Automatic annotation (TrEMBL):
Protein's organism: Leptolyngbya foveolarum
Short name of any one Pfam family annotated for the protein: oligo_HPY
Encoding gene (name): phnK
Protein name, as recorded: Phosphonate C-P lyase system protein PhnK
Domain ABC transporter: 5-250
Organism lineage: Bacteria, Bacillati, Cyanobacteriota, Cyanophyceae, Leptolyngbyales
Signal peptide: none
Gene Ontology MF, one: ATP binding
Length: 256
């Protein structure tokens, strides 16, 4: 399997609502795959199903691990899966407060992820935490402050540091810039773009913002009512959309 991740026929319903309907795609190493669609199209459900935060109804998820084994993520044991998520995968939540522990310091938010993967040396943890604060443009004298004393943009940057400190190979992001002021969004996007490049990450990036995918994503999937209506290279899909829904989505963003 040359791809990093294969999602095959993934489906998930909530009662009568088919939130994800036979979704299939491949993600290749170093690629940023954008998933766009209006609110309610099933983007968050898809991401949560891939990460097994949510049980899916059918389909499978294959992942090629750092040890070059193809793992059927739905079939490995719960403890192996938890270990995999801690060491090789990362998840960036839309609301930083869902991805951070608000009652422990910024440094501990970063450090405890290192402890999860076996780091025990207090000095090393502190040094790494400080280095990562620096990478996400937070002054290291804020290390012992609680995230609740941070602005929204800083909290989101701290969440990025918490996720990336373990050097995951695959990162799933759900609307990482949603809910922030436009100027703060732009700075965060720049930072994400720079980190993704330097760390050579593979990313699935969910957003309803076409500007975000245009800037970051190599490939694009357009979702509607739980289904993929169109996919391809980002520039191709955005500049020459074939499906009427994609056309409407793009033209809607052109109207102020
Ligand atoms: N926990 C839930 N219980 C019932 N329905 C849900 C739940 N979560 C999502 N849905 C429904 O599933 C569909 C897809 O939702 P979601 O994945 O959140 O879409 P998006 O992230 O694209 O806005 C919507 O119709 C939504 O109302
Ligand atoms: Mg969502």
């Amino acid at each position: 399997m040359p791809s990093l991740l294969e999602v095959q026929n993934l489906s998930k319903a909530y009662g009568a609502v088919q939130a994800c309907d036979h979704i299939s795609f491949s993600l290749y190493p170093g690629q940023i795959l954008g998933i766009i669609g209006e609110s309610g199209s099933g983007k968050t459900t898809l991401l949560n199903a891939i990460a097994h935060h949510l049980p899916h109804d059918s389909g499978q998820i294959l992942y090629r691990s750092a040890a070059n084994e193809t793992l059927n993520v739905s079939q490995i044991s719960e403890s192996d899966r938890r270990q995999l998520m801690r060491s090789e995968w990362g998840f960036v939540k839309q609301h930083a407060c869902d991805g951070l522990r608000m009652k422990v310091t910024a440094g501990a938010n970063i450090g405890e992820r290192l402890m999860d993967i076996g780091e025990r040396h207090y000095g090393n943890i502190r040094t790494e935490a400080s280095r990562w604060l620096d990478q996400v443009e937070i002054s290291s004298d804020r290390m012992d402050d609680l995230p609740s004393t941070f602005s929204g943009g800083m909290q989101q940057r701290l969440q990025l540091a918490r996720v990336l400190v373990t050097r995951p190979r695959l990162v799933l992001m759900d609307e990482p810039t949603g809910g922030l002021d436009v100027s703060v969004q732009a700075r965060l996007l720049d930072l994400i773009r720079q980190l993704v490049r330097t760390l050579d990450l593979s990313v699935i990036l969910v957003t309803h913002d076409i500007g975000v995918v245009r800037l970051l994503a190599h490939r694009l999937i357009v979702m509607r009512h739980g289904k993929i209506v169109e996919q391809g290279l980002t520039d191709q899909v955005l500049d020459d959309p074939h499906h009427p829904y994609t056309q409407a989505l793009i033209s809607a963003t052109l109207i102020p």
